[in-house]
Amino acid sequence: MSLSGCAQLANSLNTSRGGTAATEPIVEASPIVAAPPPIISTSGGDPNFVVGVVQKVGPAVVRIDSSRTISQNPEQLEDPFRRFFGESTPEPRQRVERGSGSGFIINANGQILTNSHVVDGADSVTITLKDGRTLKGKVLGEDQVTDVAVVQIETNNLPTVALGNSEKLQPGEAVIAIGNPLGLNNTVTSGILSATGRSSSDIGATDKRVDYIQTDAAINPGNSGGPLLNARGEVIGMNTAIIKGAQGLGFAIPINTAQRIAQELIAKGRVDHPYLGIQMVTLTPEIRERVNARLGINLSTDKGVLLIDIVPRSPAAAAGLRAGDVIQSINNQPVSKIEEVQKIVESSKIGSPLQVQVQRNGQLTQVAVSPAAFPVQRQARQ
């Protein structure tokens, strides 16, 4: 399979709970009726639990304003008549892009967690605290692969959030979002946790390596980087994404993931993600038919992960993986979806070989691939 053919294929493929009172058995001929079971509330029985959570956590939620200067290429601005008549080339023009988002304080000494896309490429970062103070922020590090960043402000004795455990979440739990959507500071919305484990491909963010939390709490531009909280006021996620055109759908990065990334960013300013250098698609009978018809090859399986492109000079290329290979397992762990491959690669160690079993031309082949560090600027690759 040629790389150009595979590239064409890649483009085409990318196209109030209630109950009934229970009656106890009769004892000594006297019927004893049990009291109705208590209504269990995730709010701890407090009908105004949202108010309590906001009062507790609100002071630790900040507004983040960033700006960056964009230079335009003089050649793009040049009038062709100037060049014809020998006039000088115009000076570069610059414009300033401004953005606004949210964040939350994780350390009393001024470390703030937010989204990478809130501060990416920023020349200046300004933090506004709930008490009205405005402070200059410094980006300690950002990770585009998970969309997590840490910002430092020079002050201390700050209010902080409590971090929860995103591994034990259940759909239906009450959740609260606090942030600054559309420039409206200290906005509170609430809802439920709609789902867990939404993959990056589920929400159209294929260049990320995150399993997202889904919520129906209203999230809008400017909420990015703000906390998603449980009924106890613990942060369980970082609000990060919405799907254009959808209503009632918001997504957050699980706090366990965000915290792990933040620790690495604080320690060394970057995160080294394992990387193979493959572009892939989950193989289905329909995709198999399209591949066989369009590219004139004969895939003998319709289950696995089809490699549709190999990045030149990548670990995959060096190991001999080819476009058209179908991954069946990695380290003897069967895989049938791209999300499964992503998770195995992400949990691997850089430089430690992965045993990749592929089906190639109807035969099984074992290939050892040693992951390298993920290129920082490379997008939509795994």
UniProtKB/TrEMBL annotation:
One of its GO terms (molecular function) is serine-type endopeptidase activity. It comes from the Bacteria. NCBIfam families: HhoA_HhoB_HtrA (NF041521). The keyword Ribosomal protein does not apply. InterPro entries: HhoA_HhoB_HtrA-like, PDZ, PDZ_sf, Peptidase_S1_PA, Peptidase_S1_PA_chymotrypsin, Peptidase_S1C. This is Serine protease. SUPFAM superfamilies: PDZ domain-like, Trypsin-like serine proteases. Belongs to the peptidase S1C family. The keyword Oxidoreductase does not apply. Residues 280-362 form the PDZ domain. PROSITE patterns: PDZ. One of its GO terms (biological process) is proteolysis. It holds the Pfam family PDZ_2. Keywords: Hydrolase, Protease.
